Amino acid sequence: MLKFPYNILLGSQSPRRRELMKLLDIPYTAISLNADESFPNDLVAEEIAEYLAEKKSLMYSLKPNELLITADTIVWIDNQVLNKPANSQEAIAMLKRLSGKAHYVYTGVCIRTLLHKFVFSDATKVYFNSLSDKEIEYYVSRYEPYDKAGGYGVQEWIGAVAISKIEGSYFNVMGLPVHLVYQHLKFFENA
Fold first, then answer.
1. What pLDDT score was predicted for residue 168?
2. Of 68, 151, 48, whose CA–CA distance to 111 is shortest?
3. Which letter does DSSP use for residue 57 in this model?
4. Residue 72 appears among annotated catalytic residues
5. Residue numbers of the domain that contains 25
6. Other residues' Cβ atoms within 10 Å of the Cβ of residue 153
7. What residues contact residue 55 under an 8 Å CB cut-off, 6+ apart?
8. Structural domains counted in the chain
9. Residue pair 51/119 in contact by the 8 Å Cβ criterion
10. Which of 15, 39, 68, 73 could form a disulfide with 107 if both were Cys (CB 3.0 to 4.6 A apart)?
11. Which stretches of the chain score pLDDT less than 50?
12. Can you give the pLDDT at residue 191?
């Protein structure tokens, strides 16, 4: 639908983000960017997600005809960030913490050309049912959610059985607020 004077790049290794970009019917090329995910201690919530999305973007040297999209998703609960678990013990601990509570998912996005840069985020409130230790251990052993913020994927088994309500974008919880990406990309159609 939209046509651009740019080659669009998605700087992400996430298969979910690549899948979500396809929903927009905009041709793009996926590239891998390896950025460390450290951030200043004084950042909170969406500030962390936006900082990391921009940090990833700035790792890549753009050519004049390129537009780069990068993103980072975090889970925020009790004024603390839950990033990706390093192992099954961390994933289990995260899910126990989320069990029976509401939390926020923030995805920060950076869209950048040589002349323009937009950094923005979306927030979704997710409500979890209480989960038993057995359910948590089943999910972690079966789905190995080590590449997912908060240790879970909304599109997997745990999303079907544990999430009772979502306020905001489902796609944001998957890792990319495609509705906002699309709105921001409109700027570049004639830029």
1. 98
2. 68
3. H
4. yes
5. 7-188
6. 19
7. 35, 39
8. 1
9. no
10. 73
11. none
12. 66
Cα–Cα distance between 13 and 10 in angstroms, integer?
A: 9
Strand bridging mode 29-31 / 66-77: unpaired
pLDDT per residue as tens digits for the range 176-188: 999 999 999 999 8
The whole-angstrom separation of Cα 76 and Cα 171 is: 17
- Kindly state the tokens that stand for 53: 């999305």
Burial readout 131-149 (b: 16 or more C-beta within 10 A, e: otherwise): beeebbeebbeebebeebb
- Is residue 1 assigned to a domain? no
Q: Which two tokens stand for residue 48?
A: 């962390």
In terms of pTM, does the model score above 0.90?
Answer: yes
Phi (first) and psi of residue 167, to 5 degrees = -110, 105
| Separation of first and last alpha carbons in the chain | 16
Q: Retrieve residue 46's tokens.
A: 């969406």
Collapsing DSSP to helix, strand or coil, 39 comes out as coil
The CATH number of residue 63's host domain is: 3.90.950.10
Q: Where do we find the tokens 């041709």?
A: 27
Which residue out of 72, 78, 122, 147 is catalytically annotated? Answer: 72
Owner of token pair 């019917």: 25
Task: Evaluate whether residue 2 is within a structural domain.
Answer: no
Asked if residue 25 is part of any domain, the answer here is yes
d(CA 145, CA 93): 12
Q: Is residue 65 part of a domain?
A: yes
In terms of DSSP bridges, do strands 29-31 and 7-11 run parallel, antiparallel, or are they unpaired? Answer: parallel
Helix-helix angle 133-143:88-98, to 10 degrees? 140
